Amino acid sequence: MKFRFTAHALEQIERRRLDRHVVERVLELPQQVVAQRSGREARQSRVDFPDGEYLVRAIVDRGSDPPAVITAYRTRYVAKYLRKE
Predict the structure, then answer these.
(1) What is the pLDDT of residue 85?
(2) What SS3 state is found at 64?
(3) Average pLDDT of 49-54?
(4) 3-state class (DSSP) for residue 5
(5) Does residue 81 contact residue 75 with C-beta atoms inside 8 Å?
């Protein structure tokens, strides 16, 4: 699936020092997809970084064509966001 990065998403990826390839991998092969409000979804996966394991989350607006990446970030709060299936 193709995704379009908004200007805000690109700014946040750069500001948060995330590798865009890591975000693209999470978008293409997420460990989990969680429905959010207003037609959005969080595509997320655990990723190992030099300073430990994080959950990388990409918030996507499914209402546009192609789907638009609104923002992306990493968090150590894996248990808070990763749902047990």
Answers:
(1) 63
(2) coil
(3) 95
(4) strand
(5) yes
Taking 90 as the threshold, does the pLDDT of residue 83 lie above it?
no
Q: What is the mean pLDDT of residues 6-28?
A: 97
Q: Which residue is it, tokens 């808070």? A: 80
52-61 and 68-75: which strand pairing?
Answer: antiparallel
Look at the alpha carbons of 42, 44, 49, 53 in this order and tell me if their dihedral is positive or negative.
positive
* 73 beta partners: 57
Secondary structure (H, E, C), 15-59? HCCCCHHHHHHHHHCCCEEEECCCCEEEEEEEEEECCEEEEEEEE
Q: Which domain holds residue 57?
A: 4-81
- Count of the separate structural domains present in the chain: 1
Residue 45: the pLDDT is 97
Of all residues in the chain, the percent with pLDDT exceeding 90 is 87
Nearest to 54 by CA among 72, 29, 36: 72
